[in-house]
Amino acid sequence: MLCGLSFVVVVLATSAAASDSPNIVIMLMDDMGWGDLGSNGEPSRETPHLDQLAREGLTATSMYTAAPLCSPSRAALLTGRLPIRNGFYSNNTHGRNAYTPQNIVGGISASEVLLPELLKTRGYTSGLIGKWHLGHRTPYLPLERGFDYWFGSPNCHFGPYSDVTTPNIPVFRNASMIGRYYKDFAIDRATGVSNMTKMFTEEAVAFIQRQAREGPFFLLWAPDATHAPTYASLKFHGTSRRGRYGDAVRELDAGVGAIVNALRDANVDNNTLVVFTSDNGAALVSKEEGGSNGPFLCGKQTTFEGGMRAPGIFWWPGVIAPGSVTHQVWSQMDLFSTALQLAGITPPHDREMDGLPLAASLFHPDHEFFRPIFLYRGDRLMAVRQGSYKMHVWTWSTPTDELRRGINFCPGSEVANVTTPQPTDHSIAPVLFNVVVDPGERYPISTWAMRCNSMFAHRAKLRRGEPQLNWCDPAVMHWAPPGCEELGECLKVPASNPTLCNWPH
Q: Are residues 221 and 25 in contact, defined by beta-carbon separation less than 8 angstroms?
């Protein structure tokens, strides 16, 4: 097999159900860890619907995000391309994470082709329910990028803000805002009570009920209740052994159950692929408002296993064998390519794709493609996962300045020469782990060298996209989003003052 292969053409014998442009539902959680699911060993067992989804479907033990935080991870899933290619990174300071706060000037590049845009060519209707996070100015919003329906927010639910120095985050329906967090859409920061997950669930169910009669659909359900500050509705408030974070998980789990039931009630469950995953690992820095990465090292913001190894469940009754498990190394970029494969759509030929069409791994879980996964932090290649092994060519956990402030991405799990508080180059003598047999067991570099030189092939042909996350400006914040006039919620826009964004980690 060619080690540098970035796209595999699979000749696939599928069932009739798999050949009829199936509906596709991707449930993308926010900061939910691998260890938050009962099916992955969470001892409180507070995810009964997800655990049932796993029993009835396929568990992917090695599902990787394309970045250790939200925005670039989501951009990669919807483009099938690494952030270093699609431009969702910053090179202001090398090897630092960047995302889309509300003062970001950029967004997903117009040159990128997103999954809903391609699915539209086969008659799909696409809906986004929840957080977007790929740019909040009009050219970057979901309905400009292939989605037909959107209920949610362009940013996370931070706040409340003063609306003088910083505006509160808007909530949109389609192309116009319909209110703001903490004003029209309440989140009680003191108690952690909010109805947002309830609304996101109701919207997803309604979308399925509308579209099930109309033809194939794509639904991206992206609630953000497990991103600090966490929240849940009164029905779930105080019901978890895991505090406020657990309350949020329990309500999201109930939302999964409601969506699956909606598919069954509409008689489209046998022609719908459902995928459950998260945009990155649990945010251990959030402490009691963060989740669990189970046995994996560190958390969000890092390229260690806890930062980029996410839950992975696939469900498709009558097509995917119940209770099956795959050890295929997946990237969320593969969801892009696999969705196109199932819909019968040819991926773009004018660009390098990083996602593989892996439908064969859904139908035949024992069938594994030997492929590399490249793990970046910002513009720097930090590690490579291939087969059972993971090679760290750079390491970095939490900057020393942040540690002094009580911020720690690896609390209680520091490993000498690995969880380094400054970027550390291991190119001459990479740090090698077997992440299948024993995540803490290290092997000599010769073991990796015998595999192949995929990292060098990747670097040799890499064409970096124009970085979209370099510039910040207070004038582009949510002062006057589309629709604010009708609501009387337009705010005064300050003078433009663009500066290079500061990315501390």
A: yes
